Amino acid sequence: MTLSPTPPTEPPAGERTAERPTGVKAFLPNDLDPTVFDEAFLRQLERLGVLMKQPVRGGLKGGRRSVKRGQSVEFADYRDYTLGDDLRQLDWNVYARLEKLFVKLFIEEEDVTITFLLDASPSMAFGRPQKLLFAKRAAAALGYIGLASEDRVVVAALAGRQARRQGGLRGSGRVFRLLANLSSIQPGEGVTDLVAAARHAAAMLRGRGVVVLISDLLDPGADRVIRELASTGSELIVLHTLSPDELDPALEGDLKLVDSETGEGIDVTVDLATLDDYKARLAAWQESFADLAAKRRASYVALSTDVPLADLVFAELRRRRVVG
User: Fold this and answer.
1) N or C: lower Cβ tally within 10 Å for the chain?
2) Number of H helices, E strands in the chain
């Protein structure tokens, strides 16, 4: 049996508070994970931030150090005065000592956009918990960290050949709107071209930020997806999500395996040797993604959907320096 959240309802116009809309049931404590998204869990998330390897260039002032020089209270450096510079930024104390004009530079803090790309292909409906449900819960936790840090959070579903992008959110008071937006994402029907959908999403990125791809990567062009998203200039985090039944299949005998997207089937005989070969190939497949991500300065994390969300955030992702 798979679990799917109830659809969201639209809040009253101008809603700015953290009122709880319908459609967030899948994110509240339940039999799959009774510890998450209660008040204590949210307070713990607020102590974290999504880490970036490099300074950022943003548009609005927020909580990140920028490579630009602005007019904040934190001094950064000097540069020589040039005609037209603001005279108020001259350091007269330095002029008194050196008889040369220097302009004071300051660290400017700017915002970051964290974009979550959720694979909504039919294969993500597999497993218990359903891979897409796990992806939504992981995006909700990381998204709340971003909201609490005053970052801008954007969610897009990858299905067919497109990315269905939702409006950006800012501030922890928008957490329930984030949950409702995630609840509205359902597995698509038919074949998903993950490369085309990711390329569509990449075209909508503005400036540098963080892109979090949550996918089972069951697409022949999955390596190209990582390459293209890593080339956007944003920092890429790949959460490779597979179900326990995919990681350790409990299969034996003569079976017909059916592709969930194309409907095509293949007859197989499963025995211990077959399972051993499958696990070896699976490990090599995951290792190839890890190597590719490392070469592209991206973060790659292989996950099972039965990992408790608290362990994912506070153990695995902190160990990988994704959050901290």
Assistant:
1) N
2) 10, 11
Structural domain range at position 86 = 64-110
The radius of gyration computed from the CA coordinates of the chain, to the nearest angstrom, equals: 23
Q: Give residue 119's Cα distance to chain centre.
A: 11
Top mean pLDDT of 17-26, 29-38, 213-222 is at: 213-222
**Rounded to 5°, angle at Cα 68 from 145 and 317:** 25
Residue 17 lies in a domain: no
Q: Are 151 and 111 in contact (CB under 8 A)?
A: yes
Greater confidence, 60 or 210?
A: 210
Reduced DSSP (H G I as helix, E B as strand, rest coil) percent helix, strand, coil of the chain, to 5: 35, 25, 40
Q: Global pTM?
A: 0.77
Taking residue 18's Cβ as centre, other Cβ atoms within 10 Å add up to 12
Residues 167 and 32 reside in one and the same domain:
yes
Same domain, 88 and 200: no
CA distance 102 to 94: 7
Q: Are residues 202 and 238 in the same domain?
A: yes
For residue 315, the 8-state DSSP code is: I
**DSSP classification of residue 150:** T
Residue 31 near residue 131 (C-beta atoms within 8 A): no
